[in-house]
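quick one, 99 residues, struct below
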Amino acid sequence: MFLCVREGREYLVRLPSVASTPVDDESLAALVNFVAFELGAGDSRFPRFTAAEVHRLRQMPLTAETLTSYRRSIVDKVTRECGAPAELRTYEGPQPPSP
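---
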């Protein structure tokens, strides 16, 4: 459902662990495409990620401070505009490690 809106699409690459992956842009585009379109059964109406798009998005990685609020705004948008299930709103973001 995140592919339905520009912010959701960008989120998938801007995640800190994705944006900082030590592979070239072409390999990362292939990996994100595999996860989104093969494992995630992404809708074929949406374009696959390109190396150029990945390169641009990697320059703007999300941080721990922005991740949860940014995701919440995307989920609100995909639920409103794309019919995503409301259960997406229950995500609480990264949790600190247990002592």
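Residues 2-90 form one domain.
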